[in-house]
Amino acid sequence: MGNRSSWTALAGLVTSSMVTAPLWAAPPESLPAEQLDWHPWGEDRPEGAVCRGYYQMPAYRLATPAEGKVASEADDGQYGEDGETVLSGEVVLRRGETQLEAPQVRVPASRERVTAVGPLALRDRNLLVRGDAASFSLDSEAANIDQAHYVAHEQRLRGDATQLARVAEGRYQLTEASFTTCEPGSDLWRLVGNDIVLDQQSGFGTARHARLEVGKVPVFYWPWVRFPIDERRQTGFLWPTLGTSGDGLDYAQPFYWNIAPNQDATITPRVISDRGLLLGGEYRYLLPSDAGTIEGAYIADDRRAGDEASTDSSLENGDARWYLDYRHAGRVDKRTRYQLRYGAASDGRYFDDFGQTFGDTDTQNMARLAQVEYRGDTWRLEGKAQGYQVLDDPLDENDKPFYRLPSLTAQARWEQDVGFYEEWNANATYFWRDIEGDEQGFYDFRDQQRQVPLREAANGARFQLTPAVGWRADTTWGFLEPRLQLHHTNYELDYGDRRTERDESLTRTLPVASVDAGLVFERDLDVGGDAYRQTLEPRLNYAYVPARDQSEFPDFDTSELAFSWNQLWSPYRFSGGDRVGDLNRLSYGVKSRFLEDSSGRERLSFGLGQAAYFEDRHVDMQGDSDTLPEDRDDRYRATRQRSPWVTQLDWRIDDHWRTRWEWLYDDRKSRTESTGFDVQYRADAGHVLNLGYRWQLEGFEPAEDIEDTRTYNLEEFSASFAYKAMNRLDLIGGVRYDNTNDRMLEQLAGVQWNDCCYGLQLVWREWIDDEDTANTIEDDTTDRGLFLRFVFKGLGGVGGESGNYFEAAVPGYRGTDLSRP
Q1: CA-to-CA distance for 690 and 693, rounded, in angstroms?
Q2: What's 462-491 look like in SS3?
């Protein structure tokens, strides 16, 4: 399970001004770096190192003595009449892993305890303590040092104390002491307490009457605080998250519970001044063959639920609001795996109002799944129940998803050495959803009366059987693959109270035939003194699918596919199983690749292709094979004799620059239907630059609902960058601009500072939400967010995690782990 640094503040968080004088700890001044085993980096400084040096324990001055014995070395030794031994000069004593260096050491006749006069140095494995005076036992781990200065080499932490006591192996108690992971000479932050305990065995420390100083300025006070000193998980309070807005204060205080090595939980009370108290939590567990997470949140009385909602929402002030998300995955054996997922929210606006992570206000659904899967050498079997809750408020009845209750799949493939293969594909699914409407499917939404289309009005079972046979010949100079697939579909439907004369028992059987063939020509090529292997790969693909009337068939999970390079070589025009589009088409194209002869890496790939249609395409989402689409653009796409030319380019210009381009051009109407162009630069130092351009003709991407149909040509520009100004400083930014409507769709600016003992992330983001109505921009809203995260390395941090968001916003960027020096 993942590590979680934690700290505990049992009495709550108050300002340091409330601390009275007797509690004000005053540790001694720190020693210079050269006395703390600190070594500045020279020419051997590792790439990316943010610290200016490193701690290194020197070799022991004395060889390891026999077990239970003490080895010694001194310039002078005197023995008193009472049996006391006084060693002076350059005295060195060693017992086991402990070594003492001092100008004078007194050993009584009992030989039980040693006292030393400083300045002295006490060394243990990866630990150094310097002080003015000390006494320690020769029979146990006990030791006391006055005016102590300590360094833990591996943990990269240091501090000062008026007294340091070693009470057991790896356990130290410090009085009026400080603790920091900053380099010697830097006091950017430190924890100061009257009584600090560092326990290397358990990996955490505690402090009483502690204060956090930033630049020697007190900023927080805790009566008692617990903090990690290594990467192990510890029970305690995590650093709080604090936010402000024009409406008030938002304060979250997570508590982390390390239940067991394989279980943990986080409980997060969150006070939102204008809404109330929200209680969130997460429980994680890890079993030998299973793992899972349960998370959720609940607010009993949201005082602003109705104020923030739209006029059509049913939310009211004082409503209880919540969400729950359960995830579990495991395996029965090495071939059988299963998944469980259940997500739910009280309303469609929950994440808009309360969020989940930085910028995550676009959560659109909560998944629900129960799935078991078997993968054998030949057979793949799957059974699942699946659905999801759409998070819209209010929710259009026709946007409710169909649940699969259940869906059973059986697939198999057999191959022969001569190239023949056979496939078995079968699926049986029962689709269900609950629609509230009258007997004609009419319902009220946003003060309008709408109707559920007949093709989406039924619940029912669908059985699909799609076996296939084929033969594939592969050689170094080409390939040939004829393939025949039979699509048999049977429906048993139930329209409920909906008045219709449609048949409730439907059957469709039709073949899908295709022949795919290609050649590969190669030649050696020298370009600028570099050796390449160039290929020329012409390709033909013929597909035939007869037209069948599917006008009475339902639409459970189907959508029309936008034309693309992959569509040239596929016989299917729809995703899902409710439509099989008619097709009589020959695709032709050619691709050329340039491969580096030394490594075989592809430097350049260029493809050009088009499809010729021998018949019109009759079947659309309405399913009618006799009536072509009435819309002007849809009719044109269904009746044109050839597709747009599709051009693809992928060029790795060098080890840093890469560009991708796709262009769909209609040579009959002399117009571009779609194009996308991206350029990326990635430097060895970690700099990233992305530039993009996107154009799409109105209606290029098919949409089932009128609100999702874009009624304008889309033209967008985008740019993003990540610039590592130095080892410590990253600058991040990005924009996405809608040139058609002259507006910014998204803006992002961020800075990340990563120093030896602290890290800082600050991000501002502004974006437009289209409110699920792509056909109009009048109802679009603008959202903004400001995010701050501050990390005290070795102690924890204030704010949430944003690294994953940075990497998603700037493709190619690799963020820095701020928790590590």
Answers
A1: 10
A2: EEEECCEEEECEEECCEEEEEEEEEEEEEE
Is it true that the peptide bond before 119 is cis, omega within 30 degrees of 0?
yes
Is the separation of the CB atoms in 114 and 136 below 8 Å? yes
Which runs of E-coded beta strand occur in 363-419? Answer: 365-375, 379-390, 403-415
Name the pLDDT band for 780 (thresholds 50, 70, 90).
Answer: confident
35, two tokens: 């006395």
Among all chains, which residue has been given the structure tokens 């995830």?
A: 327
- Say what the pLDDT of residue 143 is: 84
- Contacts of residue 307, defined as CB under 8 A and 6 or more positions apart, other chains included, come to 317
- Residues 349-381 pLDDT 10s: 898 888 755 444 457 889 999 999 999 999 999
Q: pTM higher than 0.90, yes or no? A: no
How many whole angstroms separate alpha carbon 562 and alpha carbon 699? Answer: 10
- Tell me the CATH architecture of domain 33-241: Sandwich (2.60)
Per-residue pLDDT of 118-161, as tens digits, reads 799 988 888 899 999 988 877 777 888 999 999 988 888 899 99
> Per-residue confidence at 804, pLDDT binned at 50, 70, 90?
low
| pLDDT band, very low/low/confident/very high, at 708 (cuts 50, 70, 90) | low
Alpha carbons 457 and 498: distance in angstroms, whole number: 8
State the pLDDT at residue 110: 76
Number of H helices and E strands in the chain, helices first, is: 5, 51
Tell me the CA distances in angstroms from 366 to 129, 321, 322, 357, one per residue in order. Answer: 55, 15, 13, 15
Please provide the distance, in angstroms rounded to a whole number, between the alpha carbons at the two ends of the chain: 22
Give the pLDDT of residue 703.
65
C-alpha dist (Å) from residue 31 to 130, 181, 797 = 9, 15, 27
CATH 2.60.450.10 residue window(s) in the chain: 33-241
Percent of the chain with pLDDT over 70: 90
Q: How many CB atoms lie within 10 A of CB 529?
A: 5
Q: Can you give the three-state secondary structure of 231-279, one letter per residue?
A: CCCCCEECCCEEEEECCEEEEECCEEEEEECCEEEEEEEEEECCCEEEE
Q: Could you tell me if 801 and 238 are in contact, meaning their C-beta atoms sit under 8 angstroms apart? A: no
Amino acid at 631: D
pLDDT number for residue 139: 74
In whole angstroms, what is the distance from residue 101 CA to residue 93 CA?
A: 7
Look at residues 276, 281, 274 and name the one whose alpha carbon lies nearest to residue 257.
281
CB 212 within 8 A of CB 220: yes
Cα 247-253-255 angle, rounded to 5 deg: 160
Residue 186 has phi, psi (to 5 degrees) of -115, 130
**The predicted structure's pLDDT at residue 821:** 55
The three-class DSSP label of residue 372 is strand
Burial 272-286 (b: 16+ CB within 10 A, else e): beebbebebbbbbbe
